[in-house]
């Protein structure tokens, strides 16, 4: 198997929130007295329209903004910070911070993380190893660690994303295990690779640079294909399980029909699939569900709802990072360039939606020319689904006739109780779970030795709807630099990507955090008037030129979420978080973020110091005993 026992070394830790807002910076923001200033004791009321107002009833709902203390509780209740406490050089990952803030009730976002010790040693390299390990090198470990991080963005329910949180990493790990052992189909691939010169293999298959280590697990193209195969395999299980159950019931129907013919040759009492199914699955809400009914019903739920998925896989021994994306969640990397003394960013995934021209071209090529104009309508698949790749979403994968039979058999109330097939459904499937997989090599083996990978931000589209890639990277970079209090977004951007000096942008290298006190510049009279107008409603974003970020959270994911919701515009944050479901979905989506920090002298997690979670506080804190 890919992994060994986790319990011997896997530690879960939690950073408890220490909200120490910079009072001087807060006072600078409050200098422009706003009509709706917030303090811990005050609230502001505002109204929002009700989407489905009842006839004769109110058309608006009054919302009371949260206090600062309530905002902090909402933002920190799901945050976790985990320090990877491993021997030096064993793992590329130093720490990862996670958090989720719901808009839907219940939340449809999910996440999962697993780190295991590699139990297959790296095959000998045809070229000599580096003379000395770089900060990102796992040369100090014979095998090195394998790290898996996933975020799932569900839609039309939480069933698919929940199942992915339980199974996606395991499916990928099982497929990678075959690659490591060169078993099954990979045995033939290994034979073919060993029989070819490296240059010829790379020309045919692709892969890493010349002189790359041997072994299929060190071949990026093979690993990428294995990850994609695992994604497809899991989606096939999700979508096909209800179909296989339906086949069993149809066989039962045929058997019942042949044994229930009346003496006169007429049909018995149960002459249709629907009637047979509902003798097993009674539609009455008061009926006692049988175990069989419960199993079949639960199997169809993950197929009918859907979910995007974003997976980051890190092989510490190989110094390889893979990012697999199905849907519109996004991964963005932050690199520190020592030569130029500034940060650089790279998007490691591309949003797969109907607004992505490459996706539109791909989908049109997969269907008859007669459907060319209908495949994507208004930026959505058949005019309905925004992501073009997703798990589940069987409405876009089953044909019309099959959908009707499945709904009649397994749903109380039959096909009338759920949404029918999308309009224009002619040649399914229209949606695939096959991911786009990117590969990067870090450390001395990378193509850019002066650029060091410091962190990766993984987040569902709820974050990216409110924040650009540049803003997210600058916020993490500024946090690592020790900035506290408030800073104008334009100033933070300049200091991150075009720094005045290296010390401002470099992460703190000592155990004591480097603190950079940065306050908001005094606003001009015109800016003050512009800002006052922008504060006439708590949900107002305000002018972009005056957008200001707040640095107060120790957890990097919480830090990103707070600033996506409004940052130093505290009344906007308090207003957005106060709107209850389902109305909140019109203003913000579920947000799930995972920030992965890589090992280096500057980012070793010495500050803040995580506090170990006891099993009483969090069931996940218990060491995992089983193998992956």
TrEMBL record:
<dbReference type="GO" id="GO:0005739">
    <property type="term" value="C:mitochondrion"/>
</dbReference>
<dbReference type="GO" id="GO:0004741">
    <property type="term" value="F:[pyruvate dehydrogenase (acetyl-transferring)]-phosphatase activity"/>
</dbReference>
<feature type="compositionally biased region" description="Polar residues">
    <location>
        <begin position="613"/>
        <end position="628"/>
    </location>
</feature>
<dbReference type="Pfam" id="PF00481">
    <property type="entry name" value="PP2C"/>
</dbReference>
<feature type="compositionally biased region" description="Polar residues">
    <location>
        <begin position="511"/>
        <end position="523"/>
    </location>
</feature>
<dbReference type="InterPro" id="IPR001932">
    <property type="entry name" value="PPM-type_phosphatase-like_dom"/>
</dbReference>
<dbReference type="InterPro" id="IPR015655">
    <property type="entry name" value="PP2C"/>
</dbReference>
<feature type="region of interest" description="Disordered">
    <location>
        <begin position="508"/>
        <end position="539"/>
    </location>
</feature>
<feature type="domain" description="PPM-type phosphatase">
    <location>
        <begin position="122"/>
        <end position="598"/>
    </location>
</feature>
<protein>
    <submittedName>
        <fullName>Protein phosphatase Mg+2 or Mn+2 dependent-PPM</fullName>
    </submittedName>
</protein>
<feature type="compositionally biased region" description="Low complexity">
    <location>
        <begin position="601"/>
        <end position="612"/>
    </location>
</feature>
<feature type="region of interest" description="Disordered">
    <location>
        <begin position="600"/>
        <end position="628"/>
    </location>
</feature>
<dbReference type="InterPro" id="IPR036457">
    <property type="entry name" value="PPM-type-like_dom_sf"/>
</dbReference>
């Amino acid at each position: 198997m890919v992994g060994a026992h986790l319990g011997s070394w896997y530690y879960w830790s939690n950073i408890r929130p220490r909200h120490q807002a910079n009072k001087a910076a807060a006072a600078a923001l409050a200098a422009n007295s706003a009509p709706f200033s917030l303090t811990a004791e005050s609230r502001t009321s505002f109204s929002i329209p009700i989407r489905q107002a009842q006839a004769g009833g109110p058309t608006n709902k009054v919302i009371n903004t949260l206090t600062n203390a309530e905002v902090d509780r909402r933002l920190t209740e799901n945050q976790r910070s985990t320090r990877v406490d491993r021997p030096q050089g064993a793992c590329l990952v130093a720490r990862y911070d996670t958090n989720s803030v719901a808009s839907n009730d219940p939340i449809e976002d999910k996440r999962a993380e697993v780190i295991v010790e590699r139990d297959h040693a790296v095959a000998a390299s045809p070229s000599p190893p580096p003379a000395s390990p770089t900060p990102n090198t796992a040369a100090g470990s014979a095998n090195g660690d394998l790290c898996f991080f996933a975020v799932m963005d569900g839609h039309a329910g939480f069933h698919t994303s929940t199942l992915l949180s339980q199974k996606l990493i395991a499916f990928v790990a099982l497929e990678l295990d075959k690659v490591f052992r060169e078993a099954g189909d990979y045995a033939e691939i290994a034979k073919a690779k060993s029989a070819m010169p490296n240059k010829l293999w790379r020309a045919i298959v692709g892969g890493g640079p010349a002189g790359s280590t041997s072994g299929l697990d060190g071949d990026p193209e093979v690993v990428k294909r294995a990850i994609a195969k695992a994604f497809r395999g899991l989606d096939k299980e999700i979508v096909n399980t209800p179909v296989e159950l339906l086949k069993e019931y149809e066989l039962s129907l045929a058997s019942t029909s042949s044994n229930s013919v009346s003496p006169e040759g007429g049909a018995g009492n149960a002459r249709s699939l629907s009637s047979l199914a509902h003798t097993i699955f009674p539609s009455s809400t008061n009926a006692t569900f049988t175990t069989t009914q419960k199993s079949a019903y639960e199997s169809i739920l993950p197929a009918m709802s859907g979910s995007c998925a974003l997976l980051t896989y890190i092989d510490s021994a190989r110094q390889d990072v893979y990012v697999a994306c199905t849907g519109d969640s996004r991964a963005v990397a932050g690199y520190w360039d020592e030569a130029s003394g500034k940060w650089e960013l790279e998007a490691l995934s591309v949003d797969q939606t109907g607004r992505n021209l490459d996706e539109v071209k791909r989908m049109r090529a997969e269907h008859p020319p007669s459907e060319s104009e209908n495949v994507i309508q208004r930026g959505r698949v058949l005019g309905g689904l925004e992501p073009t790749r997703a798990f589940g979403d069987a409405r876009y994968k089953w044909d019309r006739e099959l959908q009707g039979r499945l709904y009649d058999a397994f749903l109380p109330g039959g096909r009338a109780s759920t949404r029918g097939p999308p309009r224009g459904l002619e040649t399914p499937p229209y949606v695939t779970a096959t991911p786009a997989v990117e590969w990067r090599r870090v450390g001395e083996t990378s193509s850019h030795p002066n650029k060091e990978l410091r962190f990766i931000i993984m987040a569902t589209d709820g974050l990216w709807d409110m924040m650009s890639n540049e803003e997210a990277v600058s916020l993490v970079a500024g946090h690592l630099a020790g900035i506290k209090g408030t800073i104008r977004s334009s100033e933070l951007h300049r200091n991150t990507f075009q720094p005045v000096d290296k010390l401002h942008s470099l992460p703190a290298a000592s155990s004591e955090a480097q603190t950079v006190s940065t306050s908001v510049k005094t606003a001009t009279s015109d800016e003050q008037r512009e800002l006052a107008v922008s504060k006439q409603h708590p949900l107002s974003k305000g002018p972009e030129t005056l957008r200001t970020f707040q640095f107060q959270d120790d957890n990097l994911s919480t830090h990103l979420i707070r600033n996506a919701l409004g940052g130093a515009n505290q009344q906007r944050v308090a207003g957005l978080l106060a709107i209850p479901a389902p109305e909140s979905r019109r203003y913000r989506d579920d947000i799930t973020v995972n920030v992965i920090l890589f090992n280096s002298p500057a980012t070793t997690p010495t500050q803040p110091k995580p506090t170990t979670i006891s099993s009483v506080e969090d069931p996940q804190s218990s060491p995992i005993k089983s193998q992956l």
